Amino acid sequence: MRNRRRGGAVLETALFVPILVLLLVGMVQIAKVTYTYYTLRKTLYTAARYVATQQGVDLCNAADPAIMAAINLALTGNSTDAGGIDPILPALTSDMITMNIERVDPTSGVPTACDCSISGCDTNAGGGEPDFVVVSIPNGYTVTPVIPGVTLPSGPILLKPTVRVPFGGT
Fold first, then answer.
1. Cα gap 41→135, rounded to integer Å
2. pLDDT of the chain along its 170 residues, tens only?
3. Rounded to an integer, what distance in angstroms lies between the CA atom of residue 86 and that of residue 2?
4. Which candidate, 67, 73, 92, 105, places its Cα nearest to that of 143?
5. CB neighbours of 124 closer than 8 A, spacing ≥ 6?
6. For a Cys staple, 156 with which of 61, 64, 71, 144, CB 3.0–4.6 Å?
7. CA-CA distance, 168 to 170, in Å (whole number)?
8. For the purposes of burial, counting CB atoms within 10 Å of the CB of 107, is it exposed (0-12), middle (13-18) or buried (19 or more)?
């Protein structure tokens, strides 16, 4: 009678261990996605804060040296040149990051995107200052969780963080 009990416990353990391992691996992969999203937001915040505190930035020109320095600082931790330095997140490039400006609409009080084709959005052309700098990854950053034996039906996860920082420069 004792042998039957031992065999039952071994069988129950053999059935339970794969489920437990699958849950643990799944939790690690969820943590990986969460960490990646947090790192993306921190990267975008670094770029937005750098630009929002600079003076004389042409926010309507993506090739402005201050904007390029902000993106390089966010990607690599070095504001001068990103050449030869690995990015903080693999496969994250400066082409993936967009920077826009917003102004608060005085009638509705809601921030709206500023159209750079209008000279009123360019502070260098005599226009007013923006209220917010918005940095985002509009096409998303792909993360593929790896869980052995499980295929995600939706495929890789696409993270699309956006950061809005108040403008403080002049």
1. 9
2. 555 566 788 888 888 998 898 889 989 989 999 999 999 999 999 999 999 888 888 888 888 888 888 988 888 887 776 566 677 888 888 889 999 888 888 788 888 888 777 656 666 665 677 889 999 999 999 998 887 777 777 788 899 999 999 988 65
3. 61
4. 92
5. 56, 58
6. 144
7. 7
8. exposed
Task: Please provide the size of the chain in residues.
Answer: 170
Q: At which residue do the structure tokens 């670094």 appear?
A: 46
Burial label, 5 (beta-carbon count in 10 A; 0-12, 13-18, 19+): exposed
Residue extents of the structural domains in the chain: 2-166
Q: Which of the 8 DSSP states describes residue 71?
A: H
User: Distance between CA atoms of 54 and 129, rounded to whole angstroms?
Assistant: 12
Q: Which two tokens stand for residue 120?
A: 């009123």
Cβ neighbours of residue 47 under 8 Å, at least 6 residues apart? 70, 71, 73, 74, 97, 99, 135
Pair 121, 130: CB distance under 8 Å: yes
